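SEVERITY: medium
COMPONENT: batch folding queue
REPORTER: lab tech (J.R.)

DESCRIPTION
The queue accepted two submissions in a row. Attaching both inputs and their returned structure tokens so the on-call engineer can compare them side by side.

ATTACHMENT 1
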Amino acid sequence: MRIPGINQTGVPGAEQISLGAISSAAQSQMRVSSALTKVVDDYQVMSNKAEAVAQYGQNYQSSLTVLDSAYDEMINQPHFDEKNNPTYRDISSRWSKSSMKHVNETLNNFTNSTARSEYQADITAYLRGKSNDMRGVARTRQVEFASGVLASQISSYAKQPNGSEKIQAAIEQQVSIGFMTPEEGVNRLQASLEDHASTQLTMSIQGAENDLELDAIRLSLLDNTNPYLSLASVKSAFTSLDQRESQMDKDLDDQQNGVYVDALTKVIMGDLTEAGDIDMLLVSDQITPKFHASLMKSLNTEMLGPEVDDWAEFSLIKRNMGDYNEAEILSNSMLTKDSRIKLLTDLSKWNDEEDKDLDWVGTQQSDEAYRLLKARFPLKGTPMQAMLGLSSVENSAAMTKLYNRISALPPGDKISSVIDVANQIIAEADAGIQTKTLVVPATIQEIIDQTDGASPERKKMLDAWQMKYNAKPAPADYIRAVQNDMMSLAKEMGVIV
């Protein structure tokens, strides 16, 4: 039998030997080919794994950095927008939308399906945790906002006669929603109703217009039946009653004094000539008996004054206008009628100028000072302060310093010093200067009397005095200090006892 491709040698068995060799060689070739294929496949697997690891690591770490930064930026944004609306309401949805946008964009960058699947699984777990955190932030801010709203409501209801019912309803609503526990609600209700009772009592005292109304309030306090009106509030109310009574007496005195000055001016000018008109002022309690007697005397004697002024008296009043009032000028028997009228006009102008300087708050200078302080000490404080329209602690402290320092200045220096004082407050804050715990005397002499020579305490006190009153001591103020120091030295040396 002839086998194609096999030489016929004529030797028995040669064909079989050649076929076995061929088969063996073929099998060997297949083994080599299979081995090479396995090597190639193993390399491809390793290469794919390396690519997957590289893509996963690069994209996952990059996403963590981006998303963590976006999360921190979002939770640190203002709690209220430009219209003063709370931003917690959509913060979770904004985070979800922003984070998913980033994840979808990142998924499009993958070329390795294994890396893509691993990234998607892990980033989903990360986002699930961050979303829970964001919902916690939103819930916390929701509770804070509700607490602020409740505080605002209670403050408003405290001024209403039937506010206790509204306060109770508002707190019960907060408890039912879950913004506070029942125990917190009970404690808040007790404190709020006590505040309402105290506020209503204070308002009734301040609204009293005569002694009869004040006496009625006193009697009601002696027989108090309001369970929310504490003993401390009752004690404070009695003090407020006395203060209100004193204020009413002062207001009446000021009113009667004004009527007296007006009537005396008319007598001097010749516009009031009938005693009956003066008597009517007394009968209607517009003037006191003392004022009535003074007016009758002026009317009867036609208090026109001398023909020639006492020039020393006129000059004294002219130079020290702020030390006199209308009644003192009008009743001055050392001045002529015309001079008294002229000085009265000058006093009115002086008072107008003083009032204008005292009212420095509404000036352009004060507006500029406020602008400077607001730029250095921002108005926005905590979210609660912002919601209630309150300024930050730093801004409030700076404004208080400005008001106190300007108020301490003499009339005529207030408006011109406002901007300088504001800049001084800013400079102190920048330098970290603290003066709030130091009690500064009113005069240099008090500092000299209370401190020793060149002691640090005296220097500190003198610096604080200049800062508080925005003024420098006169050279003469230090003469007494030198004298005191020499006396102290003499005592130490035994020269004097």
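ATTACHMENT 2
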Amino acid sequence: MTGAARLVTLTLGAVMAASILAKLAGGHQPYFAVSRSIYFVALVAELLLLCGLAFPRLRAWSAFGIGTMAAAGVLVALFGDGRACGCLGTFLLLSPGQHMLLSSSVGALAVLVWRFESDRTQPKRGDGNPMETAAEL
């Protein structure tokens, strides 16, 4: 893993860890845009996705899941009637614009991690790929 890929992955992991800790510390509030059950399902999903970032074989899938959650966060910011989604618990209540910026940034980081991982796992030309060798015959 290159230095840039490692930095982006660590940054994404730090954001996810902050979100998990804030959710655990603050808990669900009635004014959040999501229900209590969705709030805790998201907490468990974030924890699993954060753990997935630690394993190279799961990192691309984890980044895809985090990107999907970020897209859901953008939708909550757009259609949540100005209510907070609770992505950072009660630690930091974000306006819809701030929430849109945070979710978009997390989504961009997830896309970068996914891109770094998909580049790393793709076979390179001339590395003895059997399909490539058969096509050259």
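NOTES FROM REPORTER
The chain has five helices and no strands.
No errors were logged for either attachment.
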